[in-house]
Amino acid sequence: LFRKEVYEHNYPHCWRTDKPVLYYPVEAWFIRTSALREKLVALNKTIEWYPPAIGEGRFGNWLENVEDWNLSRSRFWGIPLPIWRTKDGKYERCIGSFAELREAVEEAIAAGLMSHNPLDHADFDPHRPYVDEIILVAPDGSPMYREPDVIDVWFDSGAMPYAQQHYPFENQEAFQRAFPADFIAEGIDQTRGWFYTLHVIAAALFDSVAYRRVLVNGLVLDKDGNKMSKRLGNVVEPMALMEKYGADATRWYLVSNAPPWENVRFDEARLAEKVRTFFGTLHNTYEFFALYAGIDGYEPQPLPPIERLSLIDRWLVSETEKLTEEVTAAYEAYFPTQAARLIEDFVIEKLSNWYVRLNRRRFWKGEKDEDKWAAFTLLREVLARIAQLMAPIAPFYSELLWRNLHFSGSVHLSDFPEAKTALRDPALETAMDKVRRLASLLHSLRKKSGLRVRQPLPQALVPASYRAWLEPLAALLLQEVNVKSITYLDDHSEAVVYELRPNYRLLGPKLGARMPAFAAHLKGLSQEEILKVMEKGGLTWEGEWYGMEALELRAQALQGWLHASESGLTVALDTRLSPQLEAEGWARELIHHIQLARKEAGLAVTDRIQLALYLPEAYKEALRPYEPLIIQETLALGLEWLPQPPDQPGISFLDTVPLHIQITRAYEHA
User: Fold this and answer.
1) What are residue 136's DSSP bridge partners?
2) Which residue has the higher pLDDT, 668 or 239?
3) Pairing state between β 651-653 and 657-669
4) The CATH classification of domain 579-665, taken from the options 3.30.160, 3.30.450, 3.40.50, 3.30.2320
5) Domains in the chain: boundaries
6) Predicted pLDDT at 494
């Protein structure tokens, strides 16, 4: 022995037992798929792949380099290879049907090679080992024995379109109607499995594709991106999840989390969050409708003509038709993830956080007028539309919602909605989107400064150029952000001073030595000129256009003001409080605490109450002008001020002020 060394190299192992796999050569049967290469490639180009990259890349590359298909397997279980051969290999016969096999056995019986025909028995089993007992006769009279192998199970799968109809022996019309399939879906690993064998067999037999469209599913991984495996202990039990969260919520999470063709990292915490944020919001919106519809005795009725609806109702109608149009397009493009996300955003941001939030008083108010019934009817119809749009992904919950809204039949038997584009109002959609973004900016300013939303503020300043689209919707913005008025100004010099600077990182390579001159030009702009730049979204300097991304806008709010700008919108908020505004804020805060006490006492929303309060004298006197408001909002029959605090502990009002609330049900319903 001259030398002995150890080399480390990759070697295949069994993925179940981790034991090494031994390679050795065996004889096998092949289908000459290499002869079909050009046909397979050409037919593949007629298939719609989702995503297209799989068809053009992974699957297309596989076909361009296709090798002959190893059809036989040296196993016991499976479909026996229907080939009989003489021992010397001179003669061979491939059997194509039971009728042909029966006839061949009769020939063998006549030749004295078989004593009886096993196919005459009703319990004949055409699998191993019984089929191996059948001996056929060659043209020269010698015996022919079945090849001992079975067929690759992927051939079984690829033959599915024909086997399910027992084609070509029967059901030929049914087969023609169903072939090729309009749509199939499976995991990405099937590019070399089911997708491939379906394609090969259809191309070989019919010069056709087996399917017109195919959606490729990614894999479900654990939250760290690892494949799930019992060996690794990271498998999630599906039935336990569905018992806990429901099949619809689990399906919705998987569909909305990532496109079907991408791998999904499964995180149960995010599934629970999806149940809370989406399904919880949708169900609470329905419960809100059902509660007040029941109180007012609402009966379903037609929605008034669009021209008689309020602006916010027209906006919701327009947004609902827009949602229908976009969700339909997403489904038709085999992109259910986009459909789910569109529905989620609509339900949470537009329906719940905006429409219902701003229209609660229309549902609460006592007057049963057309405005109130329109709000009920519109909310019911929008909820029903959501049920129809989400039905392909959440069939059980959508059916529950549909039936709870008292629509006839099943949501799954209703016609899928078609968008009524004539009801769209893109200008209103754009204006309301800006209003919602302004509200978000104003809320962020309140949060930054620690001002409660229930504390009214005197005014907000916006550029005069906003008047055309904001004025019709100003009342909605003021209600949402709890501000008394909007002032339109040509400049914000009363509240904020602007400054424009170059985006040095972006413009440095472009301007080089010209940068100081550009910076000096920006520094010399007046406040009015800067506002015009903001309105236009940029400026022209030395014949070149510079958008806002090339500029850095800085704003310094003056004493008593807050300022914010984002995505082309700007607003200033006056935070200076008069004694009257401060007292109104206390009243709103007090109403909030009383409503919480009503809820903790288990009162119905319609129950009238006897109300007694204790607050220090200074607060009590400041709140006296707001007693009618407090009584109205809390459904109290009156308000009694306690002279002394009760013995039981109170609660903290405005963080530090002691507050005592005494509530008793008056047994008089609103």
Assistant:
1) 144
2) 239
3) antiparallel
4) 3.30.2320
5) 30-71+153-217, 83-151, 251-424, 458-574, 579-665
6) 60
